[in-house]
From TrEMBL:
Protein name as catalogued: NAD/GMP synthase domain-containing protein
A GO MF term: sulfurtransferase activity
A biological process term (GO) from this entry: purine nucleotide metabolic process
Ranges of residues in domain NAD/GMP synthase: 21-76
UniProt cross-references to InterPro entries, sorted A to Z: LarE, NAD/GMP_synthase, Ni-pincer_cofactor_biosynth, Rossmann-like_a/b/a_fold
Record field: transmembrane: none
Organism the protein comes from: Methanospirillum hungatei JF-1 (strain ATCC 27890 / DSM 864 / NBRC 100397 / JF-1)
Chain coiled-coil ranges: none
Length: 270
């Protein structure tokens, strides 16, 4: 389908569901949805909410707030609902479902307070082929997915943002820090901070897209194949930094960065 037709369909969906509250993360998907919603129905008929918690990198929160101000997107930042101790210990494969259900209670309250009829997120058609219990949880609560409804993919989103000269069109993809810890292994604040600091270091040395996967004493670093040389050139710096964080073995995943690599174990057991 022609991308212009998809955009028109998307705008129609936005109009049909106004006033609209958007679950906002500062990523490419939710930010483009926010921009298009503002342009379609006006800032007075929308609201964005960033739910903050220990799973969200501090730099990401700051960047999301700054971006919303630059783009004139109305935004509320609200503290998230923490995981129960049991969920932290078991870290189940449907972890995202529990997280989204907690997030929904916050979004619904703000939607009621701001007079928004519907809640939307930035899930897109490319997400449908992946392990996404969070999308299912949001759907069960009545949250709509305008990009999916319009058949818009992840690449479509980047293409649209680029065509609009939006500065975030090529922003690296991101995910919550929980996704760096294998299912079944306990989530702790210490692990989250190790992961966050490790990814900050990789960003600081010029790596655009990276994941720091926490496997106990082993860290598995994922970067794009074309960025592996940057790691190797600075391997002493990287090795020392991660060992100082508490990892004994510092490894580079030769398959490279890929979204949802922790879900690969689910395919082996299915």
């Amino acid at each position: 389908m022609d991308i212009n037709i998809k955009i028109q369909d998307l705008k129609s969906i936005i109009k049909e569901h106004a006033p609209l509250l958007i679950a906002y993360s500062g990523g490419v998907d939710s930010t483009l949805l926010a921009v298009l919603t503002r342009e379609t129905i006006g800032a007075e008929h929308m609201h964005c909410v960033l739910v903050d918690g220990p799973e969200v990198p501090r730099r990401a929160v700051t960047a999301a707030i700054n971006q919303s101000e630059y783009l004139k997107i109305p935004l509320t930042v609200r503290e998230g609902v923490p995981f129960s101790r049991d969920l932290q210990k078991t870290n189940p494969h449907d972890r995202c479902r529990h997280c989204k259900l907690g997030t929904y209670t916050i979004l619904k309250q703000i939607a009621d307070d701001t007079g928004c009829t519907y809640i939307a997120d930035g899930a897109n058609a490319s997400d449908l082929g992946e392990h996404r219990p969070g999308i299912e949880a949001f759907s069960s609560c009545g949250v709509i997915h305008p990009f999916i409804m319009a058949g818009i993919t992840k690449q479509d989103i980047r293409d649209i943002a680029k065509s609009m000269d939006l500065p975030f069109w090529d922003k690296p993809s991101s995910a919550c820090l929980y996704s760096r810890i294998p299912y079944g292994e306990e989530i702790t604040d210490e692990k989250l901070r190790m992961i966050e600091k490790g990814e900050e270091l990789l960003s600081d040395i010029g790596i655009r897209q990276a994941r720091v996967r926490h496997h106990g004493l082993i860290v598995r670093i994922e970067v794009l194949p074309e960025e592996m040389e940057k790691i190797l050139i600075q391997k002493d710096t990287v090795h020392t930094f991660f060992q100082n964080l508490g990892f004994l073995y510092v490894t580079l995943d030769l398959k490279g960065y890929r979204s949802g690599s922790m879900d690969e174990v689910l395919k082996l057991s299915s």
